Structure formats: C-alpha cells, structure tokens
C-alpha cells in the first residue's frame, strides 16, 4: 500500500500530463511520508532515480533501492546544494507537494505556500534539463496568477489542475509546467 493518500494525486497528475517516464531522474520536494516517492519509484523503474527531500525524516523505502532521501529545509541554500549534488547532473522532473504547517489563518498559510512554491520553482530552474517537467502545489490566493505567469515563461505550456476538487483541500491547485524551454543556469555559472 501507499504511505499517503497523496500518492493517488501524483498518479492523477502523471496520467494527465505524463511527467514521469521510465529511466528518469526525479526530484520530489516535500516528500514525507513518501507516497509520491513510492509512485515515482515505480514509474521510473530500476534504471531511474528518485531524490526526496523533506523537513521530516522519511522512513526507508525498503522495496525501492532507486530512492535517495535528504532531510532538510528547501528554503535554505545549503539544502538546495545537497539536492544539486545528489542529482549529479540534470533531472527530468521536479515535483513539489510542499505545504506549510497550518496556522489556521488562511492568508498566512497561503503566503507561506506561495513562498514554498517559488522555492520549488527556483530549484527546478537550477536542475531541470531542457524538455523537463515541473509539478508544484500552491494554495489559491493573491499573487498566484503572477507565479503562474513566471512559470509559463520557462515552459512550453502550463496546465492548472486540482485532483481534490471535491474534497476539503479544494483551495490547492497544482501547476504542471510541461517541456522546459532552456537549460539549467546555476548560480555562479
Ligand atoms: N507528497 C507527500 C506524500 O505523498 O507522502 C506528502 C507531502 S505533505 C502534503 C507536505 C510536506 O511538505 C510535509 O511533509 C512538510 O514537512 C514538507 N515541507 C514543508 N515545508 C518544507 C520545507 N521548507 N522544506 C522541505 N519540506 C517542507
């Protein structure tokens, strides 16, 4: 079984826009407890690699030896550097299900969610190969249109979807950026 109900969301997103192929290298941000990691590991297969990052510890995925996990804060430069080192080259997909700890105050949670989404986008720009895909969760609210416009500049197209439309998490939206237009630019290059 899967570690989280979220696993089915990645399945739906991947079925909609085919972001993960066999043999791919995938980076999964906000990966704990590991449902997306399980789905990604199945889809990339034994010749692929999945790198998962979270603030929380992720229990080993005993069934998958193609998964590496990093415990760290994606808002910190040193964590992003560890992800770049682990990827050891360009990656085919960056997927982010990161969400803040809920304060209960929507405007605050929404602003934090957007900040995490922008961090995921920066990481994608450091890592994604030309043609690579990006999936990111963000809570609906102010400035999300600006964020979408920024993502649109870097990909062939962006699709917005909410796999949970009928559930309580209906305020979240996933942007899928398909086909990165340019190659990675690393700070300092
Ligand atoms: N996709 C996961 C799965 O299938 O099991 C569920 C992810 S859960 C909705 C969101 C995760 O984002 C939490 O585990 C949280 O710790 C992580 N997160 C939030 N802020 C983060 C940050 N700054 N850096 C890394 N992970 C973060």
From TrEMBL:
Source superkingdom: Archaea
Swiss-Prot/TrEMBL catalytic activity: uridine(2552) in 23S rRNA + S-adenosyl-L-methionine = 2'-O-methyluridine(2552) in 23S rRNA + S-adenosyl-L-homocysteine + H(+)
Record family assignment: Belongs to the class I-like SAM-binding methyltransferase superfamily. RNA methyltransferase RlmE family.
Designated gene of the protein: rrmJ
Residues at the active site: 137
Compartments where found: Cytoplasm
From-to range in the entire protein, with total length: 15 to 203 of 258
Organism: Halobiforma nitratireducens JCM 10879
Top-rank EC class of the record's enzyme: transferase
UniProtKB keywords: Cytoplasm, Methyltransferase, rRNA processing, S-adenosyl-L-methionine, Transferase
Protein name, per record: Ribosomal RNA large subunit methyltransferase E
A cellular-component GO term for this protein: cytoplasm
Positions that bind S-adenosyl-L-methionine: 34, 36, 54, 73, 97
């Amino acid at each position: 079984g899967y570690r989280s109900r979220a696993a089915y969301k990645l399945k739906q997103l991947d079925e909609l826009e085919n972001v993960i192929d066999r043999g791919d290298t995938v980076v999964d941000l906000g990966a704990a407890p590991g449902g997306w990691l399980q789905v990604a590991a199945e889809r990339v297969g034994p010749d692929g690699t999945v790198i998962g990052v979270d603030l929380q510890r992720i229990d080993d995925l005993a069934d998958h030896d193609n998964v590496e996990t990093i415990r760290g804060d994606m808002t910190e430069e040193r964590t992003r550097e560890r992800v770049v080192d682990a990827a050891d080259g360009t990656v085919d997909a960056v997927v982010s299900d990161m969400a803040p700890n809920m304060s209960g105050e929507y405007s605050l949670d929404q602003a934090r969610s957007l900040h995490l989404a922008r961090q995921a986008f920066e990481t994608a720009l450091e890592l994604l190969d030309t043609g690579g895909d990006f999936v990111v969760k963000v809570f609906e609210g102010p400035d999300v249109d600006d964020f979408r416009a920024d993502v649109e500049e870097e990909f062939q197209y962006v699709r917005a979807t909410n796999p949970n439309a009928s559930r309580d998490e209906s305020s979240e939206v996933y942007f899928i950026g398909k086909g990165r237009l340019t190659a990675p630019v690393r700070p300092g290059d």
